């Protein structure tokens, strides 16, 4: 039994478009979003899910409650995220990571289920199915449990102090070869 199962959750594919409001409720609690931010993100998530190769997984409780989710897709250098991070990666000599990578677009776990292996289960499950040889993501550029998890999985900082136009806090862009590291 993996940690997520011991947390009382099951990880599997999820129709994120059908459950977008549930997923965003998890993200709102985990990330501290207000109603207006959730409304904006709803449109973004639905648009992302139409991208070629986009996939989503959820962590559900035995009663079917969605308590975590992840989605991602093969990176497209013409997408907004890539165009924002590319100058930062170019400055650190790591812009090649934008090619042939699977990007983790969002990963959120309800605070009541954090620290139980749910996030680890979600990210390893989605990346295990990736055809690309590596994965990239962005995370708030502060020492946090999320950044610790990413490092434990093999992600390393590619660029720090990345500023997204709509974000108050800077982000770090991280990359890892696939498959992700597992615990020994």
Folded structure, characterized:
With 184 residues, the chain is of the alpha+beta class. The chain has 6 helices and 7 strands, in the order H-E-H-H-E-E-H-E-H-E-H-E-E. The chain has a 7-stranded mixed beta sheet. Strand 6 and strand 7 form a beta hairpin. The longest helix has 14 residues. The radius of gyration is 15 Å and the shape is globular. The model has no long low-confidence stretch (mean pLDDT 94).
Taking pLDDT < 50 over at least 5 consecutive residues as the criterion, the unreliable ranges are none
Query: What overall form do the CA principal axes indicate?
Result: globular
Radius of gyration: 15 Å
Number of helices: 6
What's the number of extended β-strand segments?
7
**Mean pLDDT level:** 94
Largest sheet: 7 strands, mixed
Class by SSE composition: alpha+beta
Strand content: 25-35%
Please report the distance between the alpha carbons of the first and last residues. Answer: 15 Å
Lateral strand order in the biggest sheet: 1-2-3-4-5-7-6
The helical percent reads 25-40%
Order of helices and strands: HEHHEEHEHEHEE
Q: What's the topology here?
A:
Blueprint: H1 3-6, E1 10-13, H2 20-31, H3 35-48, E2 55-60, E3 66-74, H4 80-91, E4 101-109, H5 118-128, E5 134-140, H6 145-152, E6 156-162, E7 171-177
Parallel strand pairs: 4-5
Antiparallel strand pairs: 1-2, 2-3, 3-4, 5-7, 6-7
Could you give a quick summary of the protein structure above?
The protein is of the alpha+beta class and 184 residues long. The protein is built from 6 helices and 7 strands, in the order αβααββαβαβαββ.
